[in-house]
Amino acid sequence: MNLNILCYLIPALIMFCCGVYGFITRKNMIAILISLELMLNAVDINFVVFNRFLFPGSMEGMFFTLFAIAIAAAETALAIAIIVNIFRVAKNIDVREITKMKF
Amino acid sequence: MDSVGSIIMYVIIALSIVIFSVLAVTARKILRAATYLLFTLFATAALYFQLDYPFLGAVQIAVYAGGIVVLFVFAILLTSNPGDNSEKLESKKRVTGLIAAIAMLLAGGYALCTRCCDLIMPQMDSATMKTVGETLMGTGYQQYLLPFEAVSVLLLACIIGGIVIARKR
Questions:
Q1: In A, which residues are within 8 Å of B2 by CB distance?
Q2: Does the ipTM exceed 0.85?
Q3: CATH of domain A7-90
Q4: Would you call A30 and B37 a contact, using CB atoms and an 8 Å cutoff?
Q5: Cα(B121)–Cα(A2) distance, integer angstroms
Q6: CATH number of B4-126
């Protein structure tokens, strides 16, 4: 039995769909951010898998994933700073109740 | 022909990716969701190791599991009472989410199953540290010094932005 490319892409697809589900249904901002991380991670897996199966000699997908990880880290840090600040102002991080973007 | 060991490893990794990502978006306690996210990220790192990208797996563990999840845990402890359950979902919202997720799963799965041929993993030597370093630091064809520097500027901007946003006034 051989592992073909589908064996690696299907778990990534399921992970992405979990991210979509969580992004739509969750109300806590941090939970939304967790779903976003799941989606980013699924996309990273796709880059690596296509790089490994289609162009095993080159490293484009690997480096794209590397930079995507760096950018995801920066984005998460900023988003968490914003969430902590919102909590300080509104005492709440529920997306339905944050309707006023004013101090 | 893959060895039995690699197939067993693959099954463990794929199952843990699927199970833990489902748990990460359905767990009622937010701290548990962050823990399941950590397990998903570890499984992804294991997948990278299995695909012969050890450097990428190490980066995944160091940046995601070591950095981002710690940030998440601190933010959760700062903003909510960790014992609290989140409220029950309204059924309308859950149905919307399920429809979106399943539609995407079906569309993506159909596209994958019809378009992707049965490609077998080709032989590859995992890249040596020397190659990775030269690719990251070179300025020639398929070398990435410019994006590397751009990421450093981005991280600097991110640090300054984080301080400006989150400091006490």
A1: 1-3
A2: yes
A3: 1.10.287.3510
A4: no
A5: 9
A6: 1.20.120.1200
